[in-house]
Structure formats: structure tokens, C-alpha cells
Amino acid sequence: MRIRTPRTSRLLAALGSVALALPLAACASSNTQAVAPLSGPSTAAHPEWSQYTFTIGDNGGDGSQALAKITGVFDNAPYKVRFARFTYGPPLIQAAASGDIDLGAVGDVPPITGAAKEYGFKIVAVNRSLRPTQSQENIIVPQGSPIRNLADLRGKKLAVPQGSSAHGLALNALKSVGLTPKDVQLVFLPPADGATAFATGKVDAWAIWNPQSAIAVEHGARILAKGLPPIDQTSSYYVASDKSLADPVKRAALTDLLQRLAHEFAWAHQHTDQYAQALSQEDGISLADAKVALIAQESRVTPVLPADIAAEQQLGDAFLQAGQISVKVNVASITDSILPAGYDSSKLG
Known about the structure:
Layout: H1 6-19, E1 53-58, H2 64-71, E2 80-85, H3 89-98, E3 103-106, H4 110-115, E4 121-129, E5 137-141, E6 157-160, H5 165-176, E7 185-188, H6 191-199, E8 205-209, H7 212-218, E9 222-226, E10 236-241, H8 242-246, H9 248-270, H10 272-283, H11 287-293, E11 299-302, H12 306-321
Parallel strand pairs: 1-2, 1-3, 6-7, 6-8
Antiparallel strand pairs: 3-10, 4-10, 4-11, 5-8, 5-9
Helix pairs in contact: 1-6, 2-9, 2-10, 7-11, 10-11
């Protein structure tokens, strides 16, 4: 029997509070915090937008819903918004494809694995890290693990959320040392189950993103491989439902919504104390853990560029070659950038 130590219990509690967050939905409400509300991008009056209620897919760990309340960025929007919480990217992609959500943010792999199974969504914008040398996801091992390098993963159990950005990191990290998925025991677990398996020693390593990765390291875990080029992208992507993009009027409103979200995070990166509080509140983690997790959160929203499509195509081809998907994905066919050329949210106040 494995005895759970106090350190293990604290780690499990810290990780579980993030990974076990339940789905939720809420409408934007009036700003009740001592923060001046944001006006969002200036737009002409669109009375026809009042008929819309947009559902934003929240992939967890970014505090977007709490930030919306703090900043009031949607308070004067001529449409309503609500949030739907997902624990990671693949279910969010499915919801976008079915039209159950209108917009959401995911890592680099879910659009690939999603398009290999179903269509009905498009990549519409890119979220680029403002800290390109700071990884947003890692392969980690427990404190005291005898695993010292990626080659040591041969024959070991590596927990991975299937179809997620961490799946891509694991695949490329193994390839970088001449290993294939068949050389290790890939244990496909959603984040909540992965947190439990890692904290209780049921797996030897875990490929996971922040805040779970950052919190685990803060509690003693060790980074085996960082999610940085050339084995990983530092960008993530916004996806939107084809049903929303197909209607020109609704598409214009969706562009406004995306810009307001970008404005919300631009404000958050300049007000890190409030951002940490929002993250702590939304994910049920301590304020100290939230501040640790924010180190790699700074990013800017831009249109999709040809280099992004090329990077995603390369990733999709790697998944096909490794047998992780069964059909080739044409990334250009699932891309529909909706932001104005040259848009850069880092220029917002």
C-alpha cells in the first residue's frame, strides 16, 4: 500500500482544486469591483446585436470569467455573454463544432485532433506568449524521481490529457530523443485524474500545462522537459463555431466579443494583483499559487498568420505520422482569421 505523505496530500489538494473545477455558466454583470470598467473596442451602434447571447468556452486556468466581472469589459456590450467551463481543450472543440459555444481558447493540438474527427469550427485568432522563454506547459516528474532525462521515460508511465496541447508536447519530446509513443506507457487521463495519478505515484511523469504544472513544481515536482520550441509551441488559439461565423452580422459581433476578451487580458497583465485574485477565485486555488501560475500567462492576441498555419500543419503531420490521428488535417481549411490586419492586444491599456 502506498502511504500518502503530508506533502502528497498538499500537492493533491492544490492540483485537484484546479483540475476538478466544475462546468459553470454566468452572464456578464455590472462591475462591482473597485476597478474602472473597460469600454472595450469602440464600435458603431449595432442594435441588431441585442438579439445575441454568446457562449464563451473557458478552458480553465485563465480567470476569464472572474476578470469579466472585475473589469466590466462586457457591461456595455450590445449583446449578452455567458461562460461555459471546460477542464481542457478537446471537449471545448467538440462544443464549438456542435455550436454549443460560440468562441473559446485552446492549445495547439485540440484543433488538430478535433478536425481529424469532426468539423464545424475554425481557428480565428492566436494568443501569443509575451514571455517566449517561459514555458506554459511541461513534462514533470515527482520530487525524488530517478528519471533524469527524457530518454529515461522508456517503459515508464507518462500521464497525458489525450488530444491536448500537452499530448503534442509529449509526442515531440519523445521524438527528440528517438522514442515513439510505443516506447513508453502513455496513460491518457483528463487533468483531474492526471493530478491524482501524479500526486499518488500511479504514474512516473505528467505532461500538463499551467497552472497545474507551476503549482506542482512549487510543491516539489521537477521539470523534465519544458514546452518550448522546437518541441512545443508557445502560442494557443481561439476557435469559433462555424454557425456563428457563417452569419455576417453575427460574425461582426463575434469579432467585437473577441476584442473585448483581448482587452480584458491586456488589462489583467498590467494589474497582476487583481489578476491573481481573479484566478484564485475562479479556480479555487490559493493566492500564492495563483501568483506562481501567472508567470507564464502574459500573452497578446493577434490575427492568424501564415507561420501559424505552417506550425499547426507541421504538428498535424507529426500526429498523423505517429499514428495519433488517422486522417490528414488541412489546417488552412479550418482557419478563418476574424481580427483586423495588424491587430495586437498588447497595445491596449
